[in-house]
Design a protein that fits this description.
Length: 396
C-alpha cells in the first residue's frame, strides 16, 4: 500500500460504519479497511433504536430511499449469512386533527406513483377504533393511514455485520477514540487516536452520527448536523395484542409497537428537548410517555415497564442524510445525518457509497445526498417542535 496503513479508515463502529466496511471489502476484497470505534461496536444509535424500516414518508425522495432500504434489509440475511430478524409489519399513522387527515390524503397519489403498496386511509374515530382495537377507549382519532412496512432487530443486524466484517478481514478497533485528522494541506490523509497512534489512509469516512459535527470540526468544517435526544422504554413481554406499529404527531410526537417477543416499545418526545449529545434517560420522559399513551390507548395501562434508554437523532435541515466526499477536503467523506433513519437507511447507503469509493460511479440516490448542499447553512431550521415543518418546506 506504499506507506498507508489502510485504504479506508471509517470513524464510527455502528451499523453505518460496519455496513460500509463490509460493502467495501465485498466489492473489493483486496481493500484494507479499518473501523475505529471510541467505545464498543454499536455503542451509539445502533443499539439505541427500535428497528423500524418505514417506507411511508412525507416526501418523494424519502419514499424512494425507504423502499430501496426495505429491499436491502430483506436481502441482508443472505448477504451477511446471519438472520437479521427482518419481518413485515403493519404501520399505522394515527391522525388526531382533520387537517392531518386531509394532508395525508393528499399524499396518497404520491405514494402510488413511487411504487409504495397503497396504504389504506381511514376517516372517523369509530372506523379507526374498529380497525385498531388497541386504541379503543382512548382519545378519538380523526383518522389513520395504515400501510405495509417492516421492522428489523438492531442487535441482530449489528451482530450480522460485525461477524461478516470479521470473516472478510476488516480490522475493527474498539476503545479507540479519534482525536485529530491528519492533513496534507487541504487533503485529509488519516487520523490520530487518543493513544497517539497515527493511521494513514487514502480516505477517512465520518460515520459517527451524533458525533458527526465534532469529527467534521477536526477537518475545519462547519456542518448543520444537530444531535437531538430521543428516549424509549420497553415493557414486560405479553401475548400478542397489536400488529401495526403506531405513530402519531399530534399533539406531540409519539409511537409504540409490539416486538416479536411481545414487549411494548414506546416513546413520546419532549417539545422543549434541547440540542446536544445526551444518552441519559429521564423520569420526565417516563411520566410523559405513560400519560400520553394511556390517553390514546388505555388498554396499555396494565403493562409493566422494565427498562428505558436514550439515543440521539443526527438531524439535518432537510431530514436527508449527508453522504459523500467533501470537495474542499479531499480524502474526507461524510456518512451521517440520518435524522432518525440510520438503522433503516444505512445498509443501502453503505452499498451505494462503497460503489462510489471503489469505482467512482455515483448513484442518483447519492447525488441528492451530497453534503456540499448544506454549504452556508446554519442550524436554525434543524430543531422544530412541529414534525412536519422540516420536510420539503411544506411542498409535497
Amino acid at each position: 500500500m506504499s506507506g498507508r496503513d489502510a485504504d479506508v479508515a471509517v470513524i464510527g463502529g455502528g451499523i453505518s460504519g460496519l455496513a460500509l466496511a463490509f460493502e467495501l471489502v465485498r466489492s473489493s476484497p483486496a481493500m484494507r479497511v479499518i473501523v475505529l470505534e471510541r467505545r464498543y461496536t454499536g455503542a451509539g444509535a445502533s443499539s439505541r433504536n427500535v428497528g423500524r424500516i418505514r417506507a411511508m414518508q412525507l416526501t418523494p425522495e424519502l419514499v424512494d430511499l425507504a423502499l430501496a432500504a426495505q429491499r436491502k434489509h430483506a436481502a441482508l440475511a443472505d448477504q451477511l449469512g446471519s438472520n437479521t430478524l427482518f419481518w413485515r409489519a403493519g404501520y399505522a399513522w394515527v391522525l388526531y386533527e382533520e387537517s392531518e387527515v386531509d394532508r395525508m390524503a393528499s399524499l396518497l397519489p404520491m405514494f402510488g406513483a413511487r411504487g409504495l403498496r397503497m396504504p389504506k386511509l381511514l376517516r372517523g374515530a369509530a372506523h379507526v377504533a374498529r380497525t385498531m382495537p388497541v386504541l379503543r377507549g382512548g382519545e378519538p382519532a380523526a383518522g389513520a393511514v395504515i400501510g405495509h412496512d417492516a421492522i428489523g432487530h438492531h442487535d441482530a443486524v449489528l451482530y450480522a455485520y460485525r461477524r461478516a466484517c470479521a470473516s472478510r478481514g476488516v480490522e475493527v478497533r474498539e476503545s479507540t477514540e479519534v482525536t485529530a485528522l491528519l492533513r496534507e494541506g487541504d487533503r485529509v490523509s488519516g487520523v490520530r487516536t487518543a493513544s497517539g497512534d497515527e493511521i494513514v489512509s487514502e480516505i477517512v469516512v465520518n460515520a459517527t452520527e451524533g458525533w458527526s459535527r465534532e469529527i467534521s470540526a477536526m477537518a475545519d468544517l462547519e456542518v448543520p448536523n444537530t444531535p437531538v435526544r430521543r428516549e424509549v422504554f420497553v415493557t414486560e413481554p405479553f401475548q400478542p395484542f397489536m400488529h401495526a406499529a403506531v405513530t402519531f404527531y399530534r399533539p406531540v410526537e409519539g409511537w409504540f409497537n409490539q416486538t416479536l417477543r411481545g414487549e411494548l416499545v414506546a416513546g413520546v418526545t419532549a417539545t422543549d428537548e434541547p440540542a446536544g449529545m445526551n444518552h441519559e434517560s429521564s423520569f420526565g420522559f417516563l411520566t410523559r410517555t405513560c400519560a400520553t399513551l394511556f390517553a390514546k390507548a388505555p388498554r396499555l395501562g396494565h403493562l409493566r415497564i422494565i427498562r428505558q434508554w436514550a439515543g440521539v437523532y443526527d438531524m439535518t435541515p432537510d431530514r436527508l442524510p449527508s453522504v459523500g466526499p467533501i470537495v474542499e477536503r479531499p480524502g474526507f467523506v461524510q456518512m451521517n445525518g440520518y435524522s432518525g433513519r440510520g438503522f433503516a437507511l444505512a445498509p443501502l447507503i453503505a452499498e451505494d457509497l462503497a460503489t462510489w469509493i471503489t469505482t467512482g460511479d455515483r448513484s442518483e440516490r447519492l447525488a441528492t445526498l451530497d453534503p456540499d448542499r448544506f454549504e452556508g447553512s446554519g442550524t436554525d431550521d434543524v430543531l422544530t417542535t412541529d414534525y412536519y415543518a422540516g420536510y420539503g418546506r411544506g411542498e409535497h
